[in-house]
Amino acid sequence: MRVVILGAGGHGLSLAYHLVKKGINDISMVEAKRINYGSSGRNAGRYRYHFYTKENVEFAKEGIPYLLKLCKDLPLNPLCMKTGYLWILDDEKSKDVISRAHSLWSSEGVGGKFLPCNDFDFLKIEEECYLAPQDGSFHHDYLSLGMYEAIKDHVKVIIGEAMRLKVSGGKIVGVEVNGSIIPADVVAVTLGAWTGHFMKRNGIEVPVEPEKKEIFVTEDLKFRVKPLTISKRIYFSHTLKGEIIGGVEDEVPRGFGELDISVERSLSFTRTLRSLVKGAEGIRILRGWSGYYEMTPDHSHIMGFSDSWPDGLYVDAGYSGHGMMFSPYSGKIMADLIADGVKNKFTKIFSPQRFEENKLIDERMVI
Ligand SMILES: Cc1cc2nc3c(=O)[nH]c(=O)nc-3n(C[C@H](O)[C@H](O)[C@H](O)COP(=O)(O)OP(=O)(O)OC[C@H]3O[C@@H](n4cnc5c(N)ncnc54)[C@H](O)[C@@H]3O)c2cc1C
Fold it and tell me: For residue 324, how many other CB atoms are within 10 A of its CB?
């Protein structure tokens, strides 16, 4: 089987990793820029079980233990750590969303606790908080590059932009890159935020759109903010080195643009951080970066294939800002599907066909 994987981020690398483990030995990865150039090298490296929909909680209940296991197996250490997530319930919307979600989480065995925020010695506010102790952090680069390191002698990496799918008799036969056709029996599209754009160019509608997000890292402050803390305006946590890392919670118009950072958002981040965290009164930004969330209409991912597509074409994308944590598990599901024809229950739930069938998964917890 000749497999061509488009995009060398966490999802493409995980698919390649799992295909190599199955003994598939003709795998090419096509990457427009460099390995880990996209969101997989630009995220906050946090994992959680806590989603708004049952489907995503159940996916996380399989996917997070799988991530934690892989952390121990890779040749690089992704530093997986249980830190918790802490929601500051500072408006009616967050109170409502968390109260509804709490009963689902409890029934799924991942319930958290409502507590006064001043139980946490790093916070200087009087609101109510919600702690989900099961969640945590990892290092996104070591996760992607650890998967790459494990398989680099078994895959061919082609640097170039994938342009056109080549189809004959209703089947995938190749893909055009750098003006040549790479022959393929299977093309797997793991292009993150670029997925919708690539598929549209090939006459196929897959609703994934980019939404630019910025992350800031402050100068060092003694390590105290263990959980990822989420307020209505910002989210933040500590890095192991002692910096505070986080971003602003705001809606940004969708679309591609410059991957830069803005002075306004960096100021908004530090202002809010200073008002919430003890000892952070004069804290400043040390560095920052931006990347794309890969948004779908229901903020849930798309995996598998559609009956209306050419045979041999697969997609795994659209994680809407929470895809790094799921890259190990989704790569396994996709490899089982592609190599062995095994349809995991999640390939039905998160199928690309759900948009035509109006079976949306209304995920409201995009952080
Ligand atoms: C600021 C920010 C914070 C985030 N925080 C978290 C978090 O805490 N936890 C979490 O789980 N997730 C988080 N995410 C989301 C996570 O980063 C993504 O869901 C995940 O990295 C998507 O991985 P991917 O492999 O699908 O896509 P990507 O990593 O984006 O990879 C796609 C690749 O395709 C390449 N490409 C594009 N077009 C072409 C083409 N035509 N031909 C060839 N190659 C092409 C790109 O160069 C890129 O390398 C965050 C994202 C951002 C931006």
Answer: 25
